[in-house]
Structures are given as C-alpha cells and as structure tokens.
Specification:
Layout (H helix, E strand, L loop, with lengths): L6 H8 L3 H8 L6 H13 L5 H9 L4 E6 L5 H16 L3 E6 L4 H9 L8 E4 L6 H8 L5 E4 L9 E5 L1 H14 L5 E5 L5 H17 L8 E3 L4 H14 L5 E4 L2 H13 L9 E5 L3 H5 L5 E4 L2 H17 L7 E4 L2 E3 L2 H4 L50
Parallel strand pairs: 1-2, 1-3, 3-4, 4-5, 5-11, 6-7, 6-8, 8-9, 9-10
Antiparallel strand pairs: 10-12
Helix pairs in contact: 1-2, 1-3, 2-3, 5-13, 6-7, 8-9, 10-11
Length: about 375
C-alpha cells in the first residue's frame, strides 16, 4: 500500500523547512505566507489522515483582522488604540483593512476568512445589506460586528445608541434657547445616517419644533463634505441659530464655513457634533459633542472576540455602550468652562421628561445579553 504524504513531502512541495510545516500544523505563530504555502501543499498532496485533519482544522495564525471604512477616521483610530493592546496581551497581532465603506469589499474580507489568514474578524460596516448579513452568517471564522445588525443575526455585537445621543444634543441646544436648529447629516443609506435622520425628526417633534427641510442637508462623514453641506444649508436658511452635525468631522467643516461667513460660534450659531474625537476638543472653539464610546466599543469588541476564540459554542452576546454629552465652548461660549453635563456652568434642561445625561467620561457598558438575536437597542443607532 502506498504510503501517504508526510510533513517531509509537504515541506518539499511547499518549499519550506520541515520545522515550518510542523509549526503550521501545530498552530504556532508563523509567517502568513508560510501558512498559506503549507496548507496549500497539504491539500494538493491529499494529506487527510484524521490526526492531520484535526491539526489543519486547529491551526492558528495568532492574527485578528479589523475591517473599517476609513483607517484615517479618528473614531476608528480610537478603537484601534484599545483593540491592539487587548489582543497583544492574548498573543495576537492586529491586521487592518480599510474598506472605503464598500459592501463588496467587506464581503470579500468575510469570505477570505476561509483561507485562514486570520483567526477572527472585527467588522464595523456602515451599510448593512442582505448580502453582507449572509456573508457574516456564513463566515468560517469568528466575527464581532461593531454597529447595529438585524435581529436574528447570531453574531457577537457591540453597539451604541446614536438616536439617544442626538436627542441629548438637541435637548441641550433647545435649553440654550435655540429654535432654528439645522442638521447636517451623512448619507441616508448608511446605518448611522438613517438612525440620526430619524432621531432628528423625533427630537424636534418631542420639543414642539416643526420639521423644516430647508434646515436639513446631506453630505458625507468627513470635513470637506461637512463644509460643503453647511454652505448649502446656510444659503437656504441664513436664520439658522444652531447646527447639529452627524459627526465631529462634519462639525469641524461647519466651523470653517461659519467663520468664513462671519458667523460667530456660538453667539450667532451654536454647533454640536457626535463621536467626541480628540480634534473636537482641540478645535477653536472646542466642539460640544456626543461621545459614542469609540474606545470602549473597540475594547469590548476585542474582548468578545477573544471569548469567542476560547469558546466557539457559546451563545452570541450583545453589548451596548451608552452615549453621553460633552459640553464645550461651541454651544456655551468661551466664558463657560467646558465640562460634562453635571457642571453647574451648563444650563440645565428645561423640558419636562428630558432624558438624563450621564457625566462620566468612560461609562460602563450595559451588561452583556446572552439571548440570541436579542434587540438591545430597539431604535437602532450607528
């Protein structure tokens, strides 16, 4: 009977050392190119005894991927700063993918998990399509999604509630006496864009303010598009007295346009953003912003993925990170000290039943939920 392939024949076919083959089959840290060569050679040679099949199945790369829309976005950088040390402490390296918010690119990343180039994936999609959901469900390695996902998708999930966050900001602007509150949003076909558009309408209704389409402009989640959208809004509604921006990069673009137009912030127009990136605090004037816990979401996602790698059979978990309002000079002026919402320098909310604002910089996440497909944030959120 012809003897089957051995690690020696695999090493010859792959063009690597026997030691390298042994490391790959035993799941020890190895260069990714070597892993691919060895596994391809083993498959070509039909190396399929049960013991070997088990070795191939359990082979680990000690790498984890993080796929995001734009590697230059400060929100994702804040996440990376938390994800990397958590993974490093557990013996994993972090591989970054910038997808350009292209669903097709994200699907390709998910499908490539079958090549075993990483042991797991953290994914933060902006657009959640049926095709993407199918790819997540069919992924051949553990996946954690940051952001809202459809009910019933059995995947570990970390999310926030940007609807409530936007409501906090509009309540704050209303308490300051602002009544012509414009809204500069990102694309409506994205999860955060759709959620924040609905939240803006709902908040206006709750405050007794009419919805005026002239006060709403759509751009994209970056500074240049935020500036262009703000210019269009000001041309239509020069009497606007506040701008709610769907993220801080849009808000920074809005500050530039207002300064160029001779509109003082916040005396003429108050400006608020979302995400609480470092640039918001460093801007002039410093931007009031809704923190969506970027750092905490990243850390939670990394911990969920490590838990899944240790126990692949446990029920999916959902963690939600609550938003909080960080008040700065762009709404209350330079004379009032920037502070969290509990500071007495910040005007208190006057509308009965307004949602309570939390004052901690890094709040604790809502306890993990273990029911599969449980809808933690029923209103969504990006």
């Amino acid at each position: 009977m012809r003897e089957g392939p051995t690690i020696t024949t695999i090493a010859k076919r792959a063009g690597v050392s026997i030691a390298s083959v042994s490391r790959v089959l035993n799941g020890l840290p190895t260069r990714q190119e070597t892993v691919r060569k060895v596994m391809a050679a083993a498959e070509e040679l039909g190396y399929v005894p049960n013991s070997v099949a088990r070795s191939l199945k359990s082979a680990r790369t000690n790498q984890v991927a993080f796929a995001m829309a734009d590697i230059g976005n400060p929100v994702y950088l804040a996440m990376v700063r938390e994800i990397q040390p958590v993974l490093k402490a557990a013996g994993y390296r972090l591989v970054l993918h910038s997808t350009g918010a292209d669903v097709g690119e994200e699907i390709e990343v998910l499908r490539s998990l079958g090549e075993r180039y990483v042991d797991g994936l953290i994914l933060i999609p902006l657009r959640v399509t049926d095709e993407l959901v199918e790819a997540i469900a069919a992924a051949r390695a553990p996946v954690v999604v940051i952001g809202s996902v459809p009910d019933g998708l059995r995947v570990d999930n970390v999310r926030t509630d940007s609807r409530t966050g936007l409501r906090l900001a509009l309540d704050h602007l209303y308490a300051l006496g602002r009544r012509r509150i414009g809204f500069v949003n990102g694309p409506l076909d994205t999860v955060p864009g759709a959620a924040r558009a609905g939240a803006y309408r709902d908040a206006l209704a709750a405050l007794g303010l009419p919805y005026d389409p002239d006060l709403v402009e759509i751009g994209d989640f970056n500074r240049a598009e935020g500036a262009a959208a703000t210019s269009r809004l000001l041309a239509r509604a020069p009497d606007v007295d506040a701008l709610m921006c769907a993220n801080d990069l849009i808000a920074l673009g809005a500050l530039h346009v207002l300064r160029r137009a001779g509109r003082r912030v916040p005396q003429h127009v108050a400006v608020a953003g979302m995400d609480d990136i470092d640039l918001a605090a460093d801007a002039w004037p410093a931007v009031t912003s809704v923190s969506l816990g970027s750092a905490e979401r990243g850390r939670a996602a990394a911990e969920l993925l490590l838990d899944r790698l240790r126990d692949g059979d446990r029920e999916p978990r959902i963690i939600t990170v609550p938003p909080r309002l960080v008040v700065r000079a762009s709404t209350v002026g330079e004379d009032a000290a920037p502070s969290g919402p509990a500071d007495p320098a910040v005007p208190e909310q006057t509308r009965p039943g307004a949602p309570e604002r939390t004052g901690t910089r890094f709040p604790r996440a809502v306890p993990e939920r273990t029911a599969p497909g449980e809808d933690v944030v029923r209103e969504g959120g990006g």
